Amino acid sequence: MPDIPRSTAEARRATVLHRAVPVFARHGYHATPVTAVAEAAGISQAYVFRLFKGKLELFVAALDHCYELICRTLRTSAETAPGAGPDEVLEALGNAYADLIADRDLLMLQIHAQSASDIPEVCEAIRRGYAAVVETARELSGGTDEQVQRFIALGQLCHLIVAADLDGVDAAWARTLTRGMRHPTSRESNSQNP
């Protein structure tokens, strides 16, 4: 099926979501004005409000975009482990996720979303996102509930290691947490940050 060109509004919406991720990742939901996202996207605040009903809808859409990217990445990585067992597939998925959060914007957006989870729409987006990741991991790996739970738990540990830069801590407790984990070691965020 040939690619159907997107309307200008659809293309702008995609651009705004792409630019919203690093902006919200830097300052979180509460401290980020819509004007900052509009500036990063190169459009007016008024046009952002034509595309999204408000900051909450924009933040939730950016978070949904983040989880969609995670699931797409997991699907792509599963293709590198054909015929492998659940543990091997989940390891491939974990490695792909570790590479993905080398873009600290995706990591920090998730962390900021958790800090705003008292907002029902944000909490629902987090639940929706984790449901998609869990079901994608289960489907791709054929793993048991316990195997998928371990996969998610290790992903959360990877969040902690990267967010707190535990690779840079020379202490027994930090080595306990980082031992055997493969994750990004750079605290640099991607070049799209404002």
From TrEMBL:
Protein name as annotated: TetR family transcriptional regulator
Family matches, as PANTHER family: HTH-TYPE TRANSCRIPTIONAL DUAL REGULATOR CECR, HTH-TYPE TRANSCRIPTIONAL REGULATOR RUTR
Keyword flag Transmembrane helix: no
Start-end of DNA-binding region: 33-52
GO molecular function: DNA-binding transcription factor activity; transcription cis-regulatory region binding
Record's keyword terms, sorted: DNA-binding
Segments passing through the bilayer: none
Pfam families from the UniProt entry: TetR_N
Stretches assigned to the HTH tetR-type domain: 10-70
InterPro entries tied to this protein: Homeodomain-like_sf, HTH-type_TetR-like_transc_reg, HTH_TetR
